[in-house]
Amino acid sequence: MAANLFSEIEYLKGVGKTRGEKYRKLDIKSPYELIYHIPRTYIDFRAHIPIAQAQPDEYCFLKLTITKKLQPQAIRKGLVICKAVATDGTDNIIINIFNNVYAFHALSEGAGYYMYGKVTGGFTRKEINSPVYIKDDEKVLIQPVYRLTQGLTAVMVRTNMQQALNLMKSQPFETLSEDIMEKYELMPLMWSLENIHFPESDEAAGLARERLAFDELLKLQLGMSLMKTRTRNSTAYQMDGKISISEFLDGLPFKMTDGQMKALVEIISDLCRNVPMNRLLQGDVGSGKTAVAAAACYFAYKNGLQSALMAPTEILAMQHYKTLSEFLEPFGLKICLLTGSATAKNKKIIREKILSGEADVIVGTHAIIQKDVEYKNLALVITDEQHRFGVNQRAALAEKGDSPHKLVMSATPIPRTLALIIYGDLDISAITQLPKGRKPIKTYAVTGKMRHRAFNFVRDRLDEGRQAYVVCPMIEDSESDLFAVKSYAENAQKQDLKGYSTALLHGKMKANEKEKVMKKFRDGEIQVLICTTVVEVGVDVPNAAVMVIENAERFGLSQLHQLRGRIGRGEFESTCILITDNTTDECIKRMKIMSSTADGFKISEEDLKLRGPGDFFGSAQHGLPPLKIADIACNTQLMKKAQMCASEILRDDPELKKPENHALHMDTIRLFNKEITG
Ligand code: ADP
Ligand code: MG
Q1: Is the N end or the C end of the chain the one with fewer CB atoms within 10 Å?
Q2: How would you label 53-81 residue by residue, b for 16+ Cβ within 10 Å and e otherwise?
């Protein structure tokens, strides 16, 4: 069979078993995947200067001719130096190549080269060490620099890349129509792939990168949308809209806000349809999402059906278990908690209750979606803090039961542009207001010099009966100067918090230890919790009204906002003190934003502005398939363009079934690696 883009990588000339394995180490299994091995950067040999102008200790580009190669010298065991003399007419220079006899043999006396490397030596005798070079008859003067692995050289990758590109040229495909390319000012795919690797000019490299980043963002959105369409099969659990839950709403200790009610109505009307709900409930920290979730569980219960609530951490699962029990047990519902750290015996008992239907609402970590957990009639699955679960896990959840309804809750207010991408497969309900009577949190940013004064303030609040969090970035002391909870707690007990009851909470503690500490903190036995960001999500202790964040520069805006959301949850005036000695512009800006607004959406917009979407795609937290180009090249403008384009294509062909969208459809599936095909 003739080789094609999707053949094994070994089909390329010169790639045998050994080199094939090296490529696989870089996740490159086919010529297609090699083509999408995008250069990290480029070396531009056009920028060469005369040797006479090369300054010692600077990296320089030179164009020179080798006049004499000297004998390689073994200096000592394991070190061979090869030297050659070269000239460009303005001066001579000595080329030093260390421990690479092969590279040295590749150079010929009398031949011309472009070289790039660090120049050393004085004015009388210049040297250049381990230069990268190309022959001076090479047409492509902008050379790609790739991520490599031991035994795989730049020359090998460049040669194979040319072959792969030629292969593609012989079987060309284009994923976008002429109309779309024209409308969004994009270069053709083949041209872009050639120019991302071997650009004609800087401008060409830029245009190529833009087209390819656009492609990735477009495929991402199309893929999310395909997943959404796929889940639109029928559900076995169409609920009855005539069933009332007014006794539950009347029994709540508060009146739901308009925002909560609107979201609840949207959810219930979804539950009464014969297709599974697939909805995101978005609302800032403290907006009361849990109460809405509880009401939805109650509605399912009145329909005789089970619900499950999944949280990303054990602490949060326990918290939800407690809250849901308070809301629902008075109405006779049986709630059970299932986490990974339960004993085998307990797990067995709980699993039986889930299967028999004795449990109405099941709360837990991802333990509740394991294969061995069978449900009687799981109709509603709620996940909290969705951004921490990957697209895979979303799919795993959907497989439990007979297409249950799904609700995902997120407290991370994600700017609309990003939300459409991450949650493209979901419908969105947003709670935009906080319950009445919340006192705004006062936030101050101070330097370490003010620490003792800050703790005066903390002690005053503790003496009034309030509780406090102190957040540090590390668990144990390390070489960095960052505060670590363990030593911090020791010092605090001797000094600033002497006589007050404190406790540690961090991610390395066992689940039952964590729970013990959380319980004591909730019960008021512990006054100050010295913790890492494990408290970031979900923890709800209304009496905690003070938070001190050490090394505040270490946290992004959205993370600071999440952390701060742990206070201001009750009737008391709350204060957040950010301590940092960092004086960079960026840090100062972040502290200013934090002290001036409490609006989560505004903060996340600012975060996006400061960091750019590339930073977001670079982090692994979002659970999206890994992006290769968009994570470096992406900007908000491009994202908007890709969004517009995706909705145009889908309007016309929601499942990408039309022949003209075939190539795009296949390419989208490749990005998601089968997740959307099953
Ligand atoms: P979220 O999960 O959205 O961050 P929670 O559901 O934990 O918020 O709610 C935060 C706090 O507000 C809880 O103590 C909850 O009981 C309370 N709460 C929820 N809804 C209301 C409301 N409508 N009025 C007053 N308090 C409310
Ligand atoms: Mg919550």
Answers
A1: N
A2: ebeeeeebbbbbebeebeeeeeeeeeeee
